[in-house]
Write a structure and sequence with these properties.
By secondary structure, the protein is α+β, with helices and mostly antiparallel strands. It is 26% helix and 24% strand. The strands form 6 sheets. Strands 2, 3, 9, 10, 11, 14, 20 and 21 form an 8-stranded mixed β-sheet that branches. Strands 7-6-16-17-18-15-19 form a 7-stranded mixed β-sheet, covered by helices on one side. The longest helix has 23 residues.
Length: 553
């Protein structure tokens, strides 16, 4: 091996008109739209997952509005929208046994799913990637964008992919390959929720000035294969209340019936929770035992598991999306509509608007400047108007709780159509919400039964997560002393519980306690980067191709 500093290798570079970071719905929609408008513009998409879709996780009930615009003939092209929603059930779970079904009359209009589809977003992204490649887009999976490149004037000029074959000690292994520089006239950052490059750009250009802090939830999801007599294709179930209400935690659950006797089940835990004893993973495991949920899972087999943070702050938390040389789009810019629990259609639309804006700029022979016209185009779009109409849903949930917050949403959306003359604010960041552990009730989570509920390690196993073991840890501590000297005595080190993949442990041996990071387990959910109370954990991209390999999440 050679020390990295003694064997500096000049990176090769490639030139494109447009580089897109992330092969999710926003990035792929942007790529397709660019080439539809001008097939002479060169477009490259880099994706850190081993393949397109490997890191994609969403519920997902899909609203086809943007897809109808992008590919009006998507049915003829074979888009994987196979199950149309047939019925909606919404329950308030009062405790571990009782529930109240909410009459449709009293359900906020945003929760009605007529005309929507239950899909695998991973499979939709694979299909979108095929459409993009057919249009001439170059897609590079397995390459993590690890660095933003800047011109001398401070504008973005592209990205660099990470080096491959660097050992945990920082030395180059025999397999070492330097990263590649991808230069572009404009760069679109479509990394999804809490993108690590997007986070840097927001800080550098102060894109969040005068905005509320962004707010997040963690979504944990499983796919089950269930007996035919328990399957109702097209059924959508949403719940509020138990078990999260026992700790005063906002959030809710979902269960969707796909085709082929598949059921997806999940729980979204709001990361503004206050009790540091809360474990979103364990809340989800006991959620599946409620009769409303278990009736569909009993006799079935769990076949997939995953977790991902979702962005839910709405317009009040949305950063400025433009900066010199590039744009933030999709969930990297907070475009999810939490009132609908949907963001794929708005993410796609943000990418399509980006495409239209930069195609016009490139036609005028511009490059590297700020695409200021994007803000006007976005504000004129149905995506922005939809988010504005539903802007108060998230803050109302935080201020009033799930039940009263939903009652407020019913009045706001069903009666006043989102036109109440005020905007609610939510100015407390999620990481600042935790109370001292001593002031909160401990939670005694039941042991998993191996039938409906499971442990973290067996769950990570079926997420197909893998990282090259001998590589630098991608979970960085700003101060290695904080976990044991600050977080443990005050909050009983909550990383042990908020991580859904058993990455963080406080281990005690003959030498005392130590904070252990099992980076190999990381499913790239970004919860640690969001919820650590001192913001001491920084998530950076590991070697390309690492992480989960979701088949159809």
């Amino acid at each position: 091996m050679q020390p990295a500093e003694e064997s500096a290798v000049e990176r090769e570079s490639m030139e494109y008109d447009v580089v897109i970071v992330g092969a999710g719905p926003a990035g792929l929609a942007a790529a397709c739209r660019i080439r539809q408008l001008n097939d002479e513009i060169s477009v490259c998409v880099v994706e850190k997952g081993s393949e397109v879709g490997a890191h994609i996780l969403s519920g997902a009930v899909f609203e086809p509005t943007a897809l109808n615009e992008l590919f009006p003939d998507w049915k003829e092209r074979g888009a994987p929208l196979n199950t149309q929603v047939q019925s909606d059930d919404i329950y308030v779970l009062r405790n571990d046994e009782a529930a109240i079904r909410v009459p449709n009359l009293f359900v906020p209009s945003t929760m009605h799913n007529q005309g929507n589809y239950i899909i695998s977003l991973g499979n939709l992204c694979r299909w979108l990637a095929e459409q993009a490649e057919n249009l001439g887009v170059e897609i590079f999976p397995g390459f993590a964008a690890t660095e933003v490149l800047f011109n001398d004037d401070g504008s973005v000029t592209g990205i660099a992919t990470g080096d491959m074959g660097v050992g945990a000690n920082g030395e180059h292994k025999d397999s070492y390959m330097p990263g590649m520089e991808l230069h572009a006239k404009y760069t679109l950052f479509a990394e999804g929720c809490r993108g690590h490059l997007g986070k840097q750009l927001i800080a550098k250009y102060r894109l969040d000035a005068d905005r509320d802090p962004q707010h997040y939830g963690i979504g944990i999801k499983e796919i089950w294969k269930v007996p035919a007599d328990r399957h109702q294709q097209g059924l959508v179930v949403h719940t509020a209340g138990w078990p999260l209400n026992q700790s005063g935690t906002p959030g809710g659950g979902f269960l969707y019936h796909l085709e082929d006797n598949q059921v997806v089940v999940g729980l979204i835990t709001d990361l503004a929770y206050r009790n540091p004893h809360v474990s979103p993973f364990d809340e989800f495991q006991r959620y599946k035992h409620h009769p409303v949920i278990s009736q569909y899972l009993e006799g079935g087999q769990r076949v997939a598991y995953g977790a991902r943070a979702i962005v839910k702050g709405g317009l009040q938390s949305q950063p400025k999306m433009t900066f010199p040389g590039g744009l933030l789009i999709g969930d990297n810019a907070g475009t999810l509509n939490f009132a609908k629990i949907k963001g794929n259609h708005t993410a796609m639309k943000s990418g399509m608007i980006a495409a239209e804006t930069l195609v016009e700029a490139l036609a005028a022979d511009r490059s590297g400047d700020e695409l200021v016209d994007y803000a006007r185009r976005y504000a004129d779009s149905w995506a922005w108007k939809e988010l504005h109409k539903q802007r108060n849903f998230g803050p109302a949930q935080h201020k009033l709780g799930n039940i009263l917050g939903s009652a407020y949403a019913f009045v706001d959306l069903n009666i006043f159509r989102g036109k109440l003359p005020w905007t609610l604010r939510d100015t407390a960041a999620d990481h600042a919400q935790l109370k001292p552990a001593a002031d909160c009730k401990a939670i005694d989570y039941p042991k998993p039964d191996g039938v409906l509920s499971f442990d973290k390690l067996s769950s990570v196993f079926i997420s197909n997560t893998n990282h090259e073991e001998d590589q630098p840890c991608h979970l960085k501590l700003k101060d290695a002393e904080i976990p044991l000297n600050h977080n443990l005595p005050i909050y009983d080190e909550p990383a042990q519980r908020y991580c859904p993949a058993a990455v963080y442990e406080v281990v005690e041996d003959a030498n005392g306690k130590r904070f252990q990071i099992n980076a190999q387990n990381c499913v790239h959910c970004k919860t640690c980067d969001i919820k650590d109370p001192t913001q001491n954990i920084v998530w950076v991209a590991p070697e390309g191709g690492g992480g989960p390999n979701y088949p159809n999440m």
